[in-house]
Amino acid sequence: MGTLEEIRNAARQRAREMKLPYTGALLPAEAAQMLELEGSAKLVDVRSSAEWNYVGRIPGAVEIEWKSYPGMVPNPKFAEQLQQKVALDAPLMFICRSGARSHDTAVLANQLGYREVYNVLQGFEGDRDAHGHRNTVGGWRVAGLPWMQS
Fold first, then answer.
1. Per residue, what are the HEC states of 24-69?
2. What structural domains does the chain harbor?
3. Is 116 helix (H, G, I), strand (E, B) or coil?
4. Cα gap 69→50, rounded to integer Å
5. pLDDT tens for residues 8-19?
6. 44 φ, ψ to 5°?
7. Angle 100-111/78-85 helices, nearest 10 degrees?
8. Residues 18-45 as b or e (16 or more Cβ within 10 Å = b)
9. Could you tell me which residues come within 8 angstroms of residue 46 by beta carbon, excluding any fewer than 6 positions away?
10. Which of 20, 94, 101, 109 could be 15's S-S partner, Cβ–Cβ 3.0 to 4.6 Å?
C-alpha cells in the first residue's frame, strides 16, 4: 500500500481536490493501514446502533452514533461523547455506511479542534451498484478488511 507518510499525502491531496475543510480523505484500505501503522490513530464508526448490530462491526472501532434509528434522529451528545472517548491529538478517521455522515462528523471534529481528521470514503458498505445494492462496489467490507457480524 505505502508508508504512513504516503497515505497521509494521498489523503491530503484528495482533501485539496475535494475542497474539504479537514485533513484528508482515505480509501478503506488506507484507513486500515493507518490504524495498523499509527498506534494512536482511532477509527470512529458513526453509524447507528441498528447498523452495528444488523450489518456488522469493525473490531476496535470507537462507536458513537451520529444519528439514531429509527428516524435517523441526530445525537445531541455526539461532540461530548467524541471528546470523552478520543484525545484531541489522536489521528481521527470517521466511517459510516457510505461516507456522507462521516464527512459531517469530520467537519465537526475539525471545528472541535482535532488536529488530524479524515473521512473514510466509500464507508463500510460502499456505493450502490447498478441494481441498487450495497456491498458490491467499494467500501470496507468489499475491500476484505476486518469486520464481524453481531
1. EEECHHHHHHHHHHCCCCEEEECCCHHHHHHCCECCCCEECCCEEC
2. 4-120 (3.40.250.10)
3. coil
4. 6
5. 999 999 999 999
6. -110, 115
7. 70
8. eebebbbbbbbebbbbbbeebeebbbbb
9. 64, 65, 66, 78, 94, 95, 96, 101, 102, 105
10. 20
